[in-house]
Description:
By secondary structure, the chain is α+β, with helices and mostly antiparallel strands. 46% of the residues lie in helices and 30% in strands. The relative contact order is 0.10.
Amino acid sequence: MLLKREDRRISIIGGLVLVALTLAAGISVYVVMQRQAESILSRSLEASLQNKKHLFESQIDQGIASTRAVTTRLFPIQNLQLLDADPGNTKAQQEMQRIAQSFLLTGFAAMSFYDAQGNEVAHAGHFSQNLELRIPLSGKDHVFLLWDGQFILHAGMDMLDQQGSRIGIVMTETNLPLLTRAFLEVKPVGKTGEIAVCAPMELEKDMQCFMSRASGLEFKRQQRFVQGRALPMNYAL
């Protein structure tokens, strides 16, 4: 009888030890898997962020470079010089209009040329009218990122002659469909994910933001500090 009781007690203890070891092993595996999952998710989000960052940079740089290339073209410079010398030169005005129209074939959505006095001498395409947000990217070249149903790059640059004298201005707008698509693709980030593109406001502790969420698109002015603590975007800015 005593032997049976002893065997039963040993069996119970053995079973409890086995259950404890199984639970411990399960918890250990869970912790390891959780850490691996968090690490994979973190790396995935970081890679996604870097890809979007590089896409924004490359598309904006390309748009700025395209507008800057216009300022070095010989034909518009020569015709602006003719208009500077003779504002009523019909042939030069017609040529400027032809030049502006031809540039639309290279990817611009709209283009205008102005003479040294600020008078528009040629216009092609359609500039944005219903802007929901406009943030500066470069004060020197008057470059702005706009939203009018999509991202648009607006740039205004001086036209210079061979001596470096200002003879006019070119103003362009370029649609950025790749940026728009990348910005609106929030689903891969998850139901609670969001993508934000923000710019600092001068002399203020606020920022202007394009925000894309699963619930929709928002444009808002937001503080960079909440209850004395800096938001992550503040460090980015």
